[in-house]
Specification:
Elements: H1 2-24, H2 28-40, H3 52-69, H4 73-78, H5 80-105, H6 111-121, H7 128-136, H8 140-168, H9 175-206, H10 210-230, H11 235-253, H12 256-283, H13 285-291, H14 296-323, H15 329-334, H16 341-348, H17 354-361, H18 376-404, H19 412-437, H20 443-462, H21 471-495, H22 501-523
Organism: Allocatelliglobosispora scoriae
Subcellular location: Cell membrane
Transmembrane segments: 6-21, 26-48, 54-76, 83-103, 109-132, 182-203, 223-247, 268-285, 300-324, 345-366, 378-401
């Protein structure tokens, strides 16, 4: 019962903070961390011990999977160069830089375990940066690059972490074995993810039951993760590959009912998991501080140095990685150099999160090779300090930085124009298909379908206008009122016993579906 109450309390805090953030226009991830930090110091609040296995196997796979499902594969491919430079090159650069820095500050600590700490703090969070970027309306390409980075950087960091810890405890045999481990991890992850995507895609195509489709979707990241872990491959890469493939093929794999239900289901899962992990990060403060036994002055110096290095190394890497490849004529022609504001804001969006803390908690507690010792509690604190500092410093100031840099947001009129042109082509195709199959159908039905297609086409073009209420907006407003009246009649009939509950449920479902479509068109 006590565990149940703790979980319920955790969820209640997440919901309350989310509601307050929406009400006062706060950044939800930052607010949850701050609330977690405050609650961790309140006497009587239970201690939530964050398990590395819980995060890396229970939380990270579904969050990566849903992010991959929603990622545009064409946009991902177009931005593959900057994504790989950040998710692989930058992670290795930061990990090595931090490792060398910590080894210089603590010369008695073996270099291998210092590199392991570098791998811990190297990858930005898979949730925080894109959540903040979308909220403040950064240009779409920046969001795509940050999303792509967050999908793959954990894989690089975890592989580097495993290699460094293996060397630190004496399990690494040499460069050949290390190279083989890297190839097996990355290549195996790609193969397992592709195999999982093909199998799950086949199963999705064979079922039309939304409940089975959603169950398969929920199982996919965990099954792929289990297979990757069993074969010592990268579970992160496997989940991302499976999610990208299935997300790209989703319209041809599932029925409309399955897609609608799956979208709502994953939004709920994402909301609860993301909120919980940010709150849990803040709640770890008491445990992390309690284990710390290094002198306060030394802690302050090392913490300041590591936090500054984490922030600075991202800038040091970002500008050469942005502009040097474009000095190659072919690259520069296909992708002209962006203004300096773009790499600046990407460099500032380097918030760390729960994966950093989970990996820090996985640092070996066993003696290092040769009986060497290291301040494990200090290393865990450094990871925690990097998370809090980057979330609060960079996360809270990213909106201000974006405004001061005067980044030009995407022009919504361009999106509307592209949608209208595509809808026009889609309407022509629909009318042609209607003419091909209209034989034998009642004339009034054919005319109704033709009129519906024309209205949908006109709605897309109406968004290009402005000012006065358009016919489509008037339709939505008035139809909302009509649906309210219809619902009241059905509820009254149910309450008076004139219709059974089942009739109300069926009618309510149809009206809810229509209202959700109206809301989508209203906010488009």
């Amino acid at each position: 019962m006590e565990a149940l109450l703790e979980i319920v309390g955790l969820m209640a805090v997440v919901v309350a903070v989310y509601a307050a953030s929406r009400r006062f226009h706060l950044l939800t991830p930052i607010a949850l961390v701050v609330v977690g930090l405050a609650l961790s110091m309140v006497p009587g609040i239970p201690t939530f011990h964050l398990s590395p296995e819980f995060v890396l196997i229970g939380v990270l796979p579904p969050l990566l999977y849903v992010a991959a499902l929603e990622t545009s594969v064409p946009a991902f491919k177009f931005n593959l160069r900057p994504i790989l430079l950040l998710s692989v090159g930058l992670v290795l650069f930061v990990a090595c830089s931090i490792g060398l820095l910590v080894h210089a500050l603590l010369p008695g600590v073996p270099l291998a375990i210092c590199f392991a700490l570098g791998a811990v703090v190297a990858p930005p969070d898979a949730i925080a940066a894109t959540a903040v970027a979308r909220r403040i309306g950064l240009p779409r390409r920046i969001v795509t690059i940050l999303e792509g980075e967050s999908l793959l950087n954990d894989a690089t960091a975890l592989v580097f972490f495993r290699v460094a810890t293996a060397a630190a405890i004496g399990e690494a045999a040499g460069l050949g074995e290390i190279g083989l481990q890297v190839v097996r991890s990355a290549g195996g992850g790609v193969l397992i993810g592709a195999a999982g995507a093909l199998i799950m895609g086949f199963l999705h195509k064979k079922t039309t039951d939304p409940l089975i489709d959603n169950s398969l979707s929920l199982l996919t990241p965990f099954l792929v993760t289990a297979a990757a872990e069993a074969l010592h491959a990268s579970a992160v890469v496997a989940v991302v590959v499976a999610g990208l493939y299935l997300g790209h093929r989703l319209p041809t794999l599932m029925s409309a009912a399955s897609r609608l239900q799956m979208g709502a289901f994953w939004r709920m899962v994402q909301f609860l998991l993301e909120g919980s992990v940010f709150l849990l990060v803040g709640l770890q403060l008491r445990d992390v501080l309690g284990a710390l036994d290094t002198p306060l002055g030394e802690v302050a110096v090392i913490t300041t140095a590591v936090v500054l290095a984490v922030v600075i190394t991202r800038f040091v890497w970002m500008f050469p990685a942005t502009y040097l490849p474009r000095m190659i004529p072919r690259v520069g022609r296909n992708d002209p150099p962006p203004p300096w504001q773009v790499p600046t804001v990407i460099a500032w969006a380097g918030m760390r999160g729960v994966v950093t803390l989970a990996t820090a908690l996985a640092l070996p507690a066993t003696p290092l090779v040769g009986g060497g010792d290291y301040p494990r509690a200090l290393f865990v604190w450094l990871a925690f300090a990097v998370i809090i500092a980057t979330l609060l410093l960079q996360g809270m100031t990213l909106p201000l930085v974006a405004r001061r840099l005067r980044l030009q947001p995407d022009d919504p009129m361009q999106d509307i124009l592209a949608e209208a042109a595509t809808q026009n082509a889609a309407s022509r195709a629909a009318i042609e298909r209607l003419e091909q199959h209209a034989a034998g159908a009642p004339a009034e039905v054919v005319e109704r379908l033709r009129r519906l297609t024309t209205e949908r086409n006109n709605t897309a073009w109406e968004r290009l206008g402005g000012g006065e209420e358009t016919p489509s907006q008037a339709y939505v407003r008035l139809r909302f009122e009509m649906l309210d009246a219809e619902r009241e009649v059905y509820r009254t009939a149910r309450d008076s016993g004139r219709i059974p509950e089942e009739v109300l449920v069926r009618a309510q479902r149809d009206m809810d579906l229509e209202e959700s479509m109206l809301e989508r068109s209203e906010h488009a």
